[in-house]
Specification:
Shape: rod-shaped
Strand content: 25-35%
Structural class: alpha+beta
Order of helices and strands: EHEEHHEEEEEEEE
Number of strands: 11
Helix content: 10-25%
């Protein structure tokens, strides 16, 4: 049969209990050799500490991996910044787009010459977040123009606080694709606010 270790608790009537002597006995008769009292099972403190240390080590490793995963998510997650070659794609990139396309009220186009043609260096660019009509140089909005938003998007890279909603539009000036100044209007043509970054 299997043996297990134990300690007698009969301190008054047993010298093995007074000396805290460790005894080995059969599991079926787990009694003190000297006094015959039941033994209290002995738990090896070294083995239980080793188990606790092993579990603690595993929890520490899991916690460290979780922290690394959270940091990696904030550094690399959901911030994919696609750069588009404007000369090849024919569109101008916006860094942040926030919602799905909605129906848009498009304002009147910019003035044309007497034959109904757009003025020199004038054109229309389709962008991920709207449509730009106005001055264009090397595939970029450049000069005076109008940008009508199809979806909610940031107004300019340098302005992280203001957004345009679908149907709103900007009439302003751009320099090499960067909005420099202008006014934001709602779908009904009411001016919401102006900005100037010259």
């Amino acid at each position: 049969m299997a043996k297990k270790k134990g300690i007698c608790k009969n301190v008054e009537g047993c010298s093995k209990a007074r000396n805290r002597e460790l005894q080995e006995a059969e599991e079926s008769t787990f009694l003190c050799d000297e006094c015959g009292e039941p033994l209290v099972p002995y738990v090896d403190s070294d083995s239980s500490n080793n188990n606790n240390v092993g579990l603690s080590f595993i929890f520490i490793i899991i916690a460290i991996l979780c922290v690394i995963a959270i940091i990696a998510f904030y550094i690399f997650g959901e911030r994919v910044d696609e750069r588009i070659d404007l000369r090849q794609e024919g569109v101008y990139p916006q860094t942040e787009v926030y919602s799905e396309p909605n129906p848009v009220v498009v304002p009147e186009p910019l003035p044309m010459d007497s034959q109904g043609e757009m003025l020199a260096n004038q054109g229309t660019l389709t962008m991920p977040y709207g449509s730009y009509t106005g001055g264009i140089t090397d595939g970029y909005p450049d000069g005076e123009g109008r940008l009508v938003y199809r979806i909610r998007a940031r107004i300019a890279e340098r302005d992280s606080l203001r957004f345009a909603d679908p149907g709103q539009y900007i009439i302003g000036r751009w320099r090499r694709g960067e909005l420099m100044e202008g006014n934001l209007y709602d779908e009904n043509g009411n001016k919401l606010y102006g900005f100037n970054w010259w």
